[in-house]
Amino acid sequence: MPRQPISNILKKMEGVLSREKKLHRLTALRGLQMEEQDDPFKILIGTILSARTRDENTTKVIKKLFARFSTPNDIASADIDEIKKLIRSIGFYNVKAERIKQVSQIIVSKFGSQVPDDIDSLLELPGVGRKTANCVLVYAFNKPAIPVDVHVHRISNRLGLVNTKTVKQTEIELNKLVDRRLWTKVNNTFVMYGQNVCLPVRPICTICSLKERCKYYNYNYSSNQRAFSS
Questions:
Q1: How many Cβ atoms from other residues are within 10 Å of residue 38's Cβ?
Q2: Helix, strand counts (H, E) of the chain
Q3: Are 174 and 162 in contact (CB under 8 A)?
Q4: How far apart are CA 182 and CA 166, in angstroms?
Q5: Element of type H or E holding 59
Q6: Are 216 and 29 in contact (CB under 8 A)?
Q7: pLDDT, position 226
Q8: Which residues neighbour 108 within 8 Å (Cβ) at sequence distance 6 or greater?
Q9: Which residues of the chain, if any, have pLDDT below 70?
Q10: Range 39-141: architecture per CATH
Q11: What is the DSSP letter of 38?
Q12: Residue 4 has what pLDDT?
């Protein structure tokens, strides 16, 4: 598929989100990026905490954590039980508490308290996979990358941009398909669309501007309409 349609898809998604303001809400990472002025450490920690957690809950926990500990040195030397208490309301809080303390210690000892801005160094950090590393590149450093989560994976497959089984495969295919100048826009736009319009279950197809190319819509609605009319 040529690259040009990707820019059109992004514009159509942005148009729907702009038009349907009652559905419009920022993703946790975009909110954190704006609130913390692209602070790489807070975006890294926030991304780790956001795994398997609803954005609303992630945002509350991040604010509580950073009100108490705001630098790599703070978390690196913090009492683990206090960290657990602060983030207790998110999923897997015991594991995540240990993880963010380890990550903070490594950033202090190995990187001089500065979050690295290259994918290889980020992937060396415990528990940091490609999605988290790419999120840091995009939201903290404005570097071209395509973080792929369940929303990006789902929508890319529904729209026929890719035909993949895993998020890693989706990232590889999107990197080939999307013009590099658009990489930083993909995650935020697709995630917002996935949280507000193209939901995992019962997507709001009536307001979507991409129905004509959507596999989900054509299978679940167009086929039913044809069967009814016949």
A1: 13
A2: 14, 0
A3: yes
A4: 22
A5: helix 55-68
A6: no
A7: 46
A8: 72, 73, 76
A9: 1-4, 22-26, 28, 31-32, 34, 36-38, 222-230
A10: Orthogonal Bundle (1.10)
A11: T
A12: 46
Domain range annotation of the chain: 1-23+143-225, 39-141
CA angle 215, 221, 225 (to 5 degrees): 135
User: What residues contact residue 105 under an 8 Å CB cut-off, 6+ apart?
Assistant: 76
C-alpha dihedral sign at 164, 167, 170, 176: negative
Maximal CA-CA distance, the chain: 70
Domain 1-23+143-225, CATH number (from 1.10.1670.10, 1.20.120.340, 3.20.20.30, 1.20.120.450): 1.10.1670.10
CATH topology identical between 1-23+143-225 and 39-141 = no
Both structure tokens of 106: 């490594």
pLDDT given at position 146: 97
Long-range pairs, 12-18, Cβ under 8 A, ≥24: 12/209, 12/210, 13/189, 13/190, 13/192, 13/193, 13/197, 13/209, 13/210, 14/189, 15/209, 16/193, 16/197, 16/207, 16/208, 16/209, 17/192, 17/193, 17/196, 17/197
